[in-house]
Amino acid sequence: MKQRTLKEECQNERRKFKKIGQKYYHIENNEKLSWFSALQRCAEWGGHLVHLKSDEEWNLVKEKLEMGYRYWVDLNDLQTDNTFMSATTGEEAKFVKWHSGEPGPDNNEHCVELGRFDGFDMNDFYCFEKKNFICESSNEREELGECAGMQEDLWLKYQKSTGHSRELIMII
């Protein structure tokens, strides 16, 4: 059996993405991961956690989601409580679709999910909770360099604010 290179493995994983509207998405319904691990898995597949930008995009994506499932998106407030940033762009979220009463008052809920409520509104939740996730790519055939790993700056900010080590996070 021939061993595949890292690039070949990445390109194989890219085939999971399906076009919805103008972008490519992979909606992971089988594997549940923490927010950090989902961020890394999407990068390994040549994409990133979904970064929803409009009602139109949100409606297109939510039509494909499984009722009763909960999905990680790229938003978090790990750096500053209640300032939700995109892990994809590094900018403050311009589009949010919060469920009534969200984001909640719990200061330990830092990562954003879809699906806790009917209609797939957004909810902030505990980052280490294992959930399904949605990966996004703007181009299915985008040329891949080496597979991306975890976004180092996000890890460093999280480690600095919590004292958690990468080894602990990867085990969870």
TrEMBL record:
UniProt xrefs under PROSITE patterns: C_TYPE_LECTIN_2 (PS50041)
The protein, known as: C-type lectin domain-containing protein
Stored SMART domains: CLECT (SM00034)
Provenance organism: Drosophila willistoni
Domain of life where this protein originates: Eukaryota
Membrane-spanning intervals of the chain: none
Span of domain C-type lectin: 20-136
